[in-house]
Specification:
Blueprint (H helix, E strand, L loop, with lengths): L2 H20 L2 H17 L7 H25 L21 H7 L2 H7 L4 H12 L4 H8 L3 H18 L7 H17 L2 H7 E10 L11 E2 L1 H17 L3 E4 L7 E5 L5 E10 L2 E8 L14 H15 L1
Parallel strand pairs: 1-6
Antiparallel strand pairs: 1-2, 3-4, 4-5, 5-6
Helix pairs in contact: 1-2, 1-3, 2-3, 3-7, 6-8, 7-8, 9-10, 9-11, 10-11, 11-12
């Protein structure tokens, strides 16, 4: 097998590691490309190509994350990961860990960890690496890695929900939600939302967005039922789609350009959180991006026409 064939075989794994560390599709792709350049430029033949490449992409991602965290401190409004429509890496033996770790909720919990804690947690808990491999990767002793993992687990478990929905329950609830959304059915939406549901948008200051989180069943249901029929009037459509392993949808303008990605967090039989990614910088990998400001103006005109 040639060098490039070895690399391409492992590319899905490398991207999946990088994305979970960085929460960014574009930065993960850059990290994978930098990993290839290092591998291609190395005269040494590694004992294990998988170990060599996994270590390289992890170290690169840690370095990128350290600088990214500084930028995120100055980010305008809430920060969400870039939406991921499908995870290229599949491992039947670890399917549950892989699916859980890519959700918006899990990625936001990972933001609480230091870059090293994040890397150790992911390599061990999600990808099943041995402590000897992790120690070599992050250039710490095995004992230090075990301590990093203990701290990371503590942070993650403190933020995890007490009750989680199974896949079928999530999909059934999402189907009912999107049906009610299409119809502007306030009562239908209220039946599906948790009492403390929140709806939050990430526009990064580059697009119209919610001034603050909308909280509570009635407030969220009424806003959804008021806004989405107006979007439909100007030919904005949405297609239900799994986003970060959870029920969601991609919204498009009349030309098919991407306006936003929506994800639902389902807990204990109700929708607990609705997250909207509107920042155009986070949508480009999904296709051409719509002009959100033009859509905003068109919605205002449609509202005035309806009054």
């Amino acid at each position: 097998m040639s060098k490039i064939e070895e690399f391409e075989e492992l590319r899905p794994l490398l991207f999946s590691i990088a994305y979970r560390i960085l929460g960014s599709v574009s930065e993960a792709e850059d990290a994978v490309q930098e990993t290839w350049l290092r591998f291609d430029g190395s005269a040494t033949v590694p004992t294990s190509t998988k170990a060599f490449l996994s270590a390289a992409v992890t170290r690169i991602s840690i370095d990128v994350l350290r600088s990214a965290r500084v930028r995120r401190e100055a980010y305008v409004g809430p920060w969400f990961p870039e939406p991921l429509l499908s995870d290229p890496y599949q491992d039947p033996a670890r399917s549950a860990e892989l699916a859980d770790s890519v959700s918006m909720a899990a990625l936001l919990l990972l933001e609480r960890l230091s870059p090293l804690e994040r890397a150790v947690f992911l390599l061990r808990e999600v990808f099943g690496f041995g402590f000897d491999e992790i120690a070599t990767t992050v250039e710490r002793s095995e004992a230090a890695c075990r301590q990093l993992l203990v701290r990371a687990r503590r942070h993650m478990e403190a933020g995890r929900p007490r009750f989680e929905a199974d896949r079928q329950e999530r999909q059934e609830l999402a189907t009912r939600f999107f049906d009610a959304l299409r119809e502007g059915d306030v009562l239908g939406l209220q039946e599906l939302l948790a009492a403390d549901v929140s709806m939050v948008g990430d526009g990064g200051g580059k697009t119209p967005q919610l001034a603050r989180a909308v909280m509570g069943t009635e407030n969220v249901a009424r806003l959804l039922a008021a806004v989405f029929p107006l979007l439909a009037r100007i030919d904005v459509t949405f297609e239900p789609h799994e986003v970060n392993g959870q029920p969601g949808a991609i919204f498009r303008d009349r030309d098919g350009k991407v306006l936003q990605a929506l994800t639902l967090e389902v807990l204990d039989g109700r929708i607990q959180a609705i997250r909207l990614v509107l920042n155009p910088d986070k949508l480009g990998h999904l296709g051409p991006v719509a002009d959100a400001w033009a859509i905003h103006r068109a919605v205002r005109e449609a509202r005035r026409a309806a009054e």
